[in-house]
Amino acid sequence: MKHIPRKRFGQNFLVDVSIVNAIVSAVAPQVGETVVEIGPGLGALTEPLLKHLPCLHVVEIDRDLIARLKRLHAPERLVVHEGDALAFDFGTLGAGLRIVGNLPYNISSPLLFHLAIYATQVKDMHFMLQKEVVDRMVATAGDSEFGRLSVMLQYRFDIQALFDVPPESFDPPPKVQSAVVRLIPRPPAELTARDETLFARLVTMAFSQRRKMLRNTLKGEVSEEEFAAAGITPSWRAEDVPVAAYVALANLKAK
Ligand code: SAM
């Protein structure tokens, strides 16, 4: 029976074989690696990944698609984790994880924040996302796209936009342009925020009113002396501050 794409699950199925091949080449899966695909759907990436791997993990929420995947693949080849990727504990799959997926665009930001939790267990991640989200992920201080997502992800990962993908590559075509991105966790020695909760809170506060000067958004939280010590001019806006300066500021405040 033909599957009718469900909008609420962000179902835009990849149908362009050249894009599928480009993603699988970028991932270059090797026997012995633990690879997990988020949202396998009708298997556009799943099938070619299984050509390279004896076993693949997938996380899928749609019951009809889960039933279909289980019908088509033996459980020792395809390990299907049923449920919401936002609630899935990727930590249960061990270390050196490679995570891939043409992600459901409606939950892409929360999913990226969820995945960042597992950075120490991850080897790399390759995702298809809205191009606009990829632009925000790779934006640097001074760019108008530079925001909380850029800071929090760049703190944990080296991020590389690989290539763009037009709407016609999907069925049904999404309303937006897409792009494929690679994230590689930064070495632990480079993650120097002594209190990561405090770092995350400061970044959230700074970007809560991104048009305002930091001396106003962080009023009562950061003194003029602390701004100066972190190399930040208090009249800057949140989008002007490099990731390292946010880390420096958080470390000045950390006990
Ligand atoms: N990988 C397939 C492809 O490239 O054609 C499907 C990609 S489609 C954009 C997104 C997939 O993620 C769908 O299979 C959808 O059912 C699944 N999905 C949506 N929300 C999910 C969630 N919260 N957790 C796990 N899978 C989800």
- Structural class, by secondary structure, is alpha/beta
- Strands, total number: 9
Tell me roughly what share of residues is in helical segments.
25-40%
User: Count the helices. How many?
Assistant: 10
- Cα end-to-end separation: 60 Å
**Spatial ordering of strands, largest sheet:** 4-3-2-5-6-9-7
User: What oligomeric state do these chains adopt?
Assistant: single chain
Shape: elongated
Short description:
With 255 residues, this protein is an alpha/beta fold.
Give a written overview of the molecule.
The chain is of the alpha/beta class. Helix content is 35%, strand content 20%. It has helices at 17-27, 46-52, 63-72, 108-116, 131-138, 148-156, 196-208, 214-217, 224-229, 243-253; strands spanning 13-14, 35-38, 56-60, 78-82, 97-102, 122-130, 157-165, 170-171, 178-185. The strands form two sheets. A seven-stranded mixed beta sheet has the order 4-3-2-5-6-9-7. Helix 4 (108-116) packs parallel to helix 6. The radius of gyration is 20 Å and the shape is elongated. The protein starts with 12 loop residues before the first strand and ends with a helix. Bound molecules: S-adenosylmethionine (SAM).
Descriptors:
binds S-adenosylmethionine, alpha/beta, 35% helix, two-stranded antiparallel ribbon, 10 helices
Give the helix/strand layout.
Elements: E1 13-14, H1 17-27, E2 35-38, H2 46-52, E3 56-60, H3 63-72, E4 78-82, E5 97-102, H4 108-116, E6 122-130, H5 131-138, H6 148-156, E7 157-165, E8 170-171, E9 178-185, H7 196-208, H8 214-217, H9 224-229, H10 243-253
Helix pairs in contact: 4-6, 7-10
Bound molecules: S-adenosylmethionine.
S-adenosylmethionine binds next to strand 1 and strand 3.
